Amino acid sequence: MASGARSKYPVPLAPACGDRPAGPTSENLGLPVHQDVETILFDEAQIRLGIDRVASEVTAAYRGRPFTVVSVLKGSCVFASDLIRRIPIPLELAFVSASSYGDGTQSGQLHLNFFPAESEIAGRNLLLVDDILDTGRTLSRLVGEMKRRGAAEVRTCVFLDKPSRRAVPFQAEFRAFEVADLFVVGYGLDFAGHYRNLPYVGALKRECYEKRA
Ligand code: XMP
After folding, report:
1. What is the DSSP string of 178-208?
2. Alpha carbon of 104 to ligand 1 centroid (Å)
3. 116 falls within a domain
4. How many domains does the chain have?
């Protein structure tokens, strides 16, 4: 799925992250983040098409049934906001915050930071929306928590699915793209809190994350 559209994005005359002093790339102020991307996996046009398809599937599945999109922060904020604007039927929006990655690329302890109010969960049809389904731990735990708190139904929708990394059995009902086992950033996905603002999904240059390991 690599795109040849790389030149569309400005690559400045500045040292790449591997040549700069140690420290998170984006902390070297003023250097655009594009240069830290090795390959673009899904460009903006591909993302638009993928989201259109998922939005149609979600619309068909919930037509005539009230439902709430629950965006899993922070990573899904970009995907969720694009997705809901392509779903033309009534929906409500809520947020849940879970973090599992800390500053590295390896899955760590999962922290549930905050949940929607009880009234937004109990008796509701929930569609949990996340940026990426990797080991499956985050979404399987969140689905369990939502059911425990009285949700009528819980389904899941992910922007990216990395099935090769699954550690617990889990399948999302809706997904935009399958992705290989690469650490990906952009379109809401981060490394050490950075790169969420890239408008495409890319694989980070190895030197950008190995410096921090
Ligand atoms: P699990 O392993 O619980 O992961 O399915 C879900 C959460 O882990 C983060 N994650 C990633 N973030 N690039 C990222 O920027 C990746 O390749 C990646 N893999 C997992 C993400 O926050 C997701 O919600």
Report:
1. E--SS-EEBTTB-BTTB-TT-SSEEEEPHHH
2. 10
3. yes
4. 1
